[in-house]
Amino acid sequence: MTDVSPPALAVTGLSHSFGRTQVLDRVGFALAPGDFTVLLGLNGAGKTTLFALVTRLYHSGTGSIAVFGNDIQRRSAAALASMGVVFQQPTLDLDLTVEQNLSYHASLHGMSRVAARPHIEAELDRVGLLERRHDRVRQLSGGQRRRIELARALVHEPSLLLLDEPTVGLDIESRHFLIEHVRKLCAEQRLAVLWATHLIDEANQDSRVIVLHRGRVLADGKVPEVVARTEAPDLKAAFDRLVRAA
Amino acid sequence: MTPVQYLRCLGGIVRREALRWLHQRSRFISALVRPMVWLAIFGAGFRFVLGVSIIPPYETYIPYEVYIAPGLIAMIQLFNGMQSSLSMVYDREMGSMKTLLISPFPRWFLLTAKLLAGVAVSVVQAYMFLAIAWFWEIEPPLWGYLFVLPAMILSGLMLGALGLVLSSFVRQMENFAGVMNFVIFPMFFASSALYPLWRVKESSLTLYWICQANPFSHATELIRFALYGQFNAISAVIVTAFLLLLMALAVYGYDPGRGLMARRTGGE
Questions:
Q1: CB-nearest partner of A55 from B16, B102, B259
Q2: Which ipTM score applies to this complex?
Q3: Which of B183, B115, B194, B128 is nearest to B155 (CA)?
Q4: Which residues make Cβ contacts (< 8 Å) with residue A127, sequence separation at least 6?
Q5: d(CA A117, CA B177)
Q6: Cα B163 to Cα B85: distance, rounded to the nearest angstrom
Q7: A148 Cα to chain B: minimum distance (Å)
Q8: Under an 8 A CB cutoff, do A96 and B265 touch?
Q9: C-alpha torsion B81→B84→B90→B96, nearest 10
Q10: pLDDT-based confidence at B264, cuts 50/70/90?
Q11: Secondary structure (3-state) at A243
Q12: Between B193 and A119, whose confidence is greater?
């Protein structure tokens, strides 16, 4: 039987420019529920712009973005409600406690404080920081703050999770925890994940990888496929070849 | 989204603003100290320099401190509006503005909620100021404390909307310091907050008309009249008109389709 449900995220012919600088050029891809997809690109490849367009921080006149079939412009409420986001920049309120930060996020999704509490506790427990919920965010380490941001992105139970360079500045242990945690969520809850990074080792053999360079998609497929297509020994070499040839 | 969910969202935004205000001690204290400095020092100093004749809504000769009190309430709201937008510029730099803007609620609603949250804080500050000012013999009639509430909400919304507009066009905190100098001080001094406009008219007709066109003058007069149980219809209309105009500009400034966000946020 064919699966006719719409993709978790469908980006079609998306272009964007800042003044005369073209940042994205006819970008297109689709994510299915349960997909863990690594968006791989150097700094300046257009990853953050792509995230800003997908999250409707601003929009482009060219191309379309749909989240579970909901166009980000025409049905933005439904699209944004099913999306959880971890931005590249820290976005927690340092003066508020962990719980206050998550409770604020829940209210931004129309959740009552009573309804949000079990979700907040469950997500904090999952990232191992439940006992720190009454601490101010300022008192936490960089790795802990990142975990809190991940927990926050999941409080409203999204079906699509977007993470923009989530491991930047983290130590090896925190990086490992974050990647494994998200992979687990992906497998257990059929969460569709778009993980933007410039770190090649964050894509393992099972991952699907989209290589973005200077606003264009150079490759899209499972890691072994991309490696085989470029006739390279590994993903790093494949990435170098793709970027050099572009 | 249901109306209840809209209310929850508004409640969350107001709660966050209140918590931030309470946690940021320096902001909390300076919000109280600033108008008191004006009242206690500037007011006392100018008491015998500036004579204030009987002008509505006052029915008798009044001390200078009594005259400037409504202007100081408007000043609290002006500072609060600017500080709230300063926090938005800061938020945007820190990224937490994104948290607000990716909420599934319409952007106009999120900006209005943010504005209302700022107004709620400024109204509490204004009442705290009025409570302390009572010891300086600023004793409006009891019902004046009630009448002034809608006036403060309206003027707070207008001044907060001005802050929103500025935050939508200002790119960095450094630029914002300039805006503070070019917006707050001219607005405050070219208004009826510190001196009645008939006195300004005597010295400069041009300045008089500038003061008349300044929405801050009308915010001050709206508060002044309300504090004495009277309604200044002209000021109410002008403040409302400015509120609508500024809010429309703010929604325009934060509209993802207009490109202002895109231009400000830039690439990677």
A1: B102
A2: 0.88
A3: B115
A4: A147, A148, A150, A151, A181
A5: 40
A6: 5
A7: 14
A8: no
A9: -140
A10: very low
A11: helix
A12: A119
Provide the pLDDT confidence category of residue B265 given band limits of 50, 70 and 90: very low
Q: From chain A, pick out residues whose CB is under 8 angstroms from the CB of B109.
A: none
Q: Which residue of A has its CA nearest to B96?
A: A91
Query: Which residue's entry shows tokens 């970008």?
Result: A27
SS3 (DSSP) at A107: helix
Q: Cα–Cα distance between B220 and A188 in angstroms, integer?
A: 60
**Chain mean position to CA A15:** 19
Distance CA B147, CA A241 (A): 73
Counting Cα atoms < 13 Å in the Cβ hemisphere of B14 gives 17
Nearest CA in chain B to A81: B104
| List of chain B residues whose C-beta atoms are within 8 Å of the C-beta of residue A134 | none
* pTM of this structure: 0.86
What is the tens place of the pLDDT at every residue in A178-223?
Answer: 899 999 989 888 899 999 999 998 988 888 999 999 999 999 999 9
**Rounded CA separation B146/B126 (Å):** 12
**What's the CA gap between B9 and B106, in Å, rounded?**
11
CB contact under 8 A, B267 and A49: yes
Cβ neighbours, 10 Å, residue A89: 14
Look at the block and give the residue holding tokens 């300039």: B178
Does residue B267 carry a pLDDT above 60? no
Q: Which two tokens stand for residue B197?
A: 């406009």
A121 has pLDDT over 60: yes
Q: Would you state the pLDDT for residue A116?
A: 95
| Structure confidence at residue A131 as a pLDDT band (50, 70, 90) | very high
For A19, the closest chain B residue by CA position comes to B263
Residue entry with tokens 């572009």: A246
How are beta strands A208-213 and A216-222 bridged, if at all? antiparallel
How far is Cα B29 from Cα B21, in angstroms, rounded to an integer?
A: 10
DSSP letters spanning chain B? --HHHHHHHHHHHHHHHHHHHHH-HHHHHHHHHHHHHIIIIIHHHHTTTS-----TT-SS---HHHHHHHHHHHHHHHHHHHHHHHHHHHHHHHTHHHHHHTSSS-HHHHHHHHHHHHHHHHHHHHHHHHHHHGGGT----HHHHHHHHHHHHHHHHHHHHHHHHHHHH--SHHHHHHHHHHHHHHHHHSSSSSS-HHHHHHH-HHHHHHHHH-HHHHHHHHHHHHHTT---HHHHHHHHHHHHHHHHHHHHHT-GGGSHHHHHH---
- Once rounded to an integer, what is the mean pLDDT over residues A12-29? 89
- Using pLDDT thresholds of 50, 70 and 90, give the confidence band for residue B174: low
Number of C-beta neighbours around residue A184 at 10 A: 12
Q: Per-residue pLDDT tens for A44-89?
A: 889 989 999 999 888 777 899 999 999 998 899 999 999 999 998 8
Q: What's the average model confidence in pLDDT over A12-33?
A: 90
pLDDT per residue over A147-185, tens digit each? 999 999 999 999 999 999 998 878 888 888 889 999 998
